[in-house]
Amino acid sequence: MYKEHFFPVLEDFMKICQFLKCLPFRTDKRQRRVVRCSRARLDIFQGQCALSGLYMASLFLNLCLRESSTAERLQGFTFLMIYLIAVVGRWDFDRVNGTAQVVNMFMDFEEKSVKDLPEFGPTIIAKLMKLFAQLIQASVFVLIGLQTTLLIYFPCTPPFVQSMFCDQMGLRPSSGIPRLGVVILEAWICTHIAFSGVTCIIFTLFVGIVCILSYFRALERYLNRLITTSQSSRDLDGCIQFYRELQVLEKSFNAFLMAKIVPVLMFCIPTIQIMAQCVCINLHDQIGFPEFLIFPLFLVNAAIVNIFVFSLAAGIHNQSASLLQSMKRRSSETAGKKGGIQRREICNCTVLKIKFGSNFIDRATPLILQNFCLNQTMSLTLANSRKLVA
Description:
By secondary structure, the chain is mainly alpha-helical.
């Protein structure tokens, strides 16, 4: 699944990232693996991490200290959330190279464990995730292009660097070559932040979820075949062993995700959706073009992540519980000591889940997030209407 279906997409992303030198790893076409870059490239990446941290701090301070209208604050806060997700997703100042480890972990798992399962291939969900990855890549190009155009003609747009000096310097579109140099520098910083961040998040969390669901689907078909054909209990032992290997994969997967990537997505993506909805509904007449064009793009991508990706993450918990029940039913048909051993082994297996902190994503999480986003949008809309009436 990963090697045949998603690795070619990863190679397309890596062509851009290698040009920008914004990731500490590269793809090896001969080994079909992700390998560590040279020491010089690692030093460049580490410097970019430090620069991105300073850049995010400057954007945050600018939003907090600069006097701005409500429309400007919403606009600036949305950009801040977008780049915060990317910075957290790509952050690897200690050179742990967790993203590369996750990618190689899935491909090693498929080579050693999944190849024996029948009817294993790309699903409809996998094809949709591939399209979504390409949509995000196109969205990053559009974001950087619109942002650069915006800063050339409207340099005082918050929360970007030039807006810090607008009150003192009175910047205008014809302020000269130095201001154009600042625009190019800021575009370069945002480009390597955005591409490296989305690459790390897509090919660890998003693609990892789809792959685990595909493994579940293959195992479920194999179990159904065992039940209908009444095959020997030795085949059920193979299913139990495969599920245990999935547990090890899930533990390693969550160890990388639960500390930073999933929590920042759970916080920032609903926030982006709320802000984008408020701008599109309430402030469309206060924010002109081209800056307004970015917000429908933010809204579509945030809604897809909230509904599609988090629903898939919840599916890991649901399908895992269903698989354990199916294996228990199959073991109950095995008589004698062997059946008892199998039932105890299944009872020792735990339900797999995508964790964030001490919690996890279940079937109610996407609905709760959408309900929260809609409620907050309505509250802000009512507050804005009361303010206009007053």
